[in-house]
Amino acid sequence: MKSQPRSVTVQLLKDARVQERLEAMEKDPSLHTTKSTYSANTGLYPDNQMPFRDKHYDYLLNHPGVDPDQYLSNLRLMLKR
Q1: Rounded to whole angstroms, how far apart are CA atoms 1 and 21?
Q2: β-strand pairing of 49-51 with 36-38
Q3: Cβ-contact 23, 75 below 8 angstroms
């Protein structure tokens, strides 16, 4: 299977409004979202804390075969209080 260019993946995530949807999930009180998780990348995260939206956006960016709508739907189900 041939991998698509990163720019195509970024555009697909923009078209699916992934960033906005993740931010909305963070603000939704009916979801149990953790504010941040550990990241060893001190260049991007000096306090070693990666925000919820960055963690899941990064996952989708690095796994272009994953359907963003399906992923966010499943994530919402898993985080439901």
Answers
A1: 29
A2: antiparallel
A3: no
The pTM (predicted TM-score) of the whole model is 0.87
> What span, in angstroms and rounded, lies between the C-alpha atoms of 6 and 22?
20
Please name every residue paired with 38 in a beta bridge, in sequence order, or none if there are none: 49
**Rg of the Cα atoms in the chain:** 13
d(CA 29, CA 53): 15
- Give me the numbers of helices (H) and strands (E) for the chain, helices first please: 4, 2
pLDDT tens-digit map of 38-80:
999 999 999 999 999 999 999 999 999 999 999 999 999 999 9
In angstroms, the CA 5 to CA 49 distance is 28
* Structural tokens at position 70: 């399906």
